[in-house]
């Protein structure tokens, strides 16, 4: 039977936060008010690390720039973002971890709170087909329809990740509790709800709170970027 390998992205497969870095990139190239955006980006990032992020407030902030530009322009900026920021953050240790699961025939999926516009090209860089991410709403259902600045459906954050994973697995005709083995690699205490649902939780480059929790529960701790 199929085994499942789920991966968080930021600070798990990447040694950085792609959401934060995308915001900093937009500020650097002058797409947004640099000083205001950088300050707000820093505030939300700290709230996330502290486990007190208001996800709806953050998403209104993060998705607004997507709604103010065409998909063609956004893609041009994202291509530059990949070259200037992300490519240098791809680490062989993370690529090898994914490949071990792929070589074993496991179904691999990245499950991230960061929106799919930012993350899909990054996930493809790891050779992973499946992505569960926060989905930006679009004007209509055309593939390259412009973004509205709103969220489509449930954000892929904290408990929302569980529902989104269940929904995705249903499209694969699978159920989490019927799989013989399921793995979830994450760095963040924010992902504790989903870590508790899989048979093999792995605290990966964990933050202080998750490290303490993993030690208490005798979960394995993996350091990819040590």
> What coarse outline follows from CA principal-axis ratios?
globular
Gyration radius (Cα, Å) is 17 Å
Q: What's the average pLDDT?
A: 95
Number of helices: 9
User: Would you count the extended β strands for me?
Assistant: 7
The run of helices and strands is: EHHHHHEHEEHEHEHE
Characterize the biggest β-sheet. Answer: 7 strands, mixed
Trace the largest sheet across and list its strands: 4-3-2-1-5-6-7
Low-confidence stretches: none
Strand coverage percent: 15-25%
- The helical percent reads 40-55%
Q: What structural category characterises the helix and strand content?
A: alpha/beta
How widely separated are the two ends? 34 Å
Describe it for me?
- By secondary structure, this protein is of the alpha/beta class.
- The chain is built from nine helices and seven strands.
- The chain has helices at 18-28, 34-49, 55-67, 71-86, 92-103, 116-125, 159-171, 192-195, 208-217; strands at residues 4-7, 107-115, 130-138, 147-152, 182-186, 200-204, 221-222.
- Helix 1 packs antiparallel against helix 2.
């Amino acid at each position: 039977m199929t085994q499942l390998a789920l991966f968080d992205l930021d600070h798990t497969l990447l040694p950085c936060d792609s959401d934060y870095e995308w915001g900093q990139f937009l500020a650097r190239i002058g797409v947004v008010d640099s000083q205001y955006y950088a300050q707000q980006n820093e505030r939300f990032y700290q709230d996330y690390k502290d486990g007190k992020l208001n996800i709806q407030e953050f998403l209104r902030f993060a998705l607004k720039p997507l709604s103010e530009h065409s998909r063609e322009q956004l893609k041009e900026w994202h291509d530059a973002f990949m070259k200037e920021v992300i490519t240098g953050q791809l680490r062989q240790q993370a690529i090898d971890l994914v490949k071990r699961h792929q070589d074993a025939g496991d179904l691999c999926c990245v499950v991230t709170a960061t929106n799919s516009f930012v993350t899909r090209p990054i996930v493809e860089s790891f050779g992973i087909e499946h992505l569960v991410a926060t989905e930006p709403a679009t004007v209509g259902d055309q593939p390259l329809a412009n973004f509205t600045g709103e969220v489509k459906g449930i954000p892929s954050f904290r408990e929302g990740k569980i529902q989104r994973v269940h929904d995705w697995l249903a499209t694969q005709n699978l159920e989490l509790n019927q799989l013989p083995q399921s793995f979830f690699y994450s760095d963040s205490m924010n992902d504790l709800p989903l870590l508790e649902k899989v048979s093999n939780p792995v605290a990966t480059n964990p933050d202080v709170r998750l490290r303490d929790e993993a030690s208490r529960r005798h979960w394995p701790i993996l350091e990819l970027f040590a």
